[in-house]
Amino acid sequence: MSWKLANSILYIAIGFLLAGDFGWKIFAHADSIECDYTWSRPEPWNNHMHLCATNTGARTMYTCSWCGRGDTKLPSAYYCVDELGTLVTKYSWDCDAGMDVNDDPTYSITCKRTVNGTPVDYRCKSRHLNQQCPTNLCKAYE
């Protein structure tokens, strides 16, 4: 009987690990804003605040004092190319400096990644993980 229970617990644990690896939102912050349109890290030009925009019906922009995913992973995208159009990855590519949308029909996501301390733009086919910002640390941008 105890072997069957241990086996069941093992399967549940494996299920949670796989769910997190596939980007399923079971580890999301309950009270957070999903930055599914754009996100940028704090910089002097934005008053050292995160900028987060959602696109759920009407586009809404927020300024946030802190942003971070509940699963501690970085925002990321798939199938990314550099400025010359060279494929850099088909897999998940971390976007630690921001994410945005662009007009390119093939690579519609701009992934900003820090290289030698400077944000570098990569164009990607699709999002993997969006940035999340706790609602209590954000206010609607005016």
Describe this entry's structure for a reader:
- The chain is mainly beta and 142 residues long.
- The protein has one domain.
- Helices cover 14% and strands 44% of the residues.
- The chain has one helix and twelve strands, in the order αββββββββββββ.
- The chain has one helix at residues 2-21; strands at 32-35, 38-40, 50-56, 58-64, 76-81, 87-89, 93-94, 98-101, 109-115, 118-129, 131-134, 138-140.
- Strand 5 (76-81) and strand 6 (87-89) form a beta hairpin.
- 25% of the residues are buried.
- The model has no long low-confidence stretch (mean pLDDT 86).
- This is Secreted protein.
Report the end-to-end length measured between terminal Cα atoms: 61 Å
Instruction: Report the helical percentage.
Output: 10-25%
How many beta-strand segments? 12
Query: What is the succession of H and E elements?
Result: HEEEEEEEEEEEE
Average pLDDT value?
86
Q: Report the C-alpha radius of gyration, rounded.
A: 17 Å
Secondary structure category:
mainly beta
Helical stretch tally = 1
- Molecular shape: globular
User: Can you tell me the residue ranges where pLDDT is under 50 for at least 5 consecutive residues?
Assistant: none
Largest sheet: 10 strands, antiparallel
How many separate domains make up the residues? 1
Quick gist of this model?
With 142 residues, this protein is mainly beta. The chain has 1 helix and 12 strands. It has one domain (32-140).
Defining key terms:
44% strand, mainly beta, 10-stranded antiparallel beta sheet, 142 residues, 14% helix
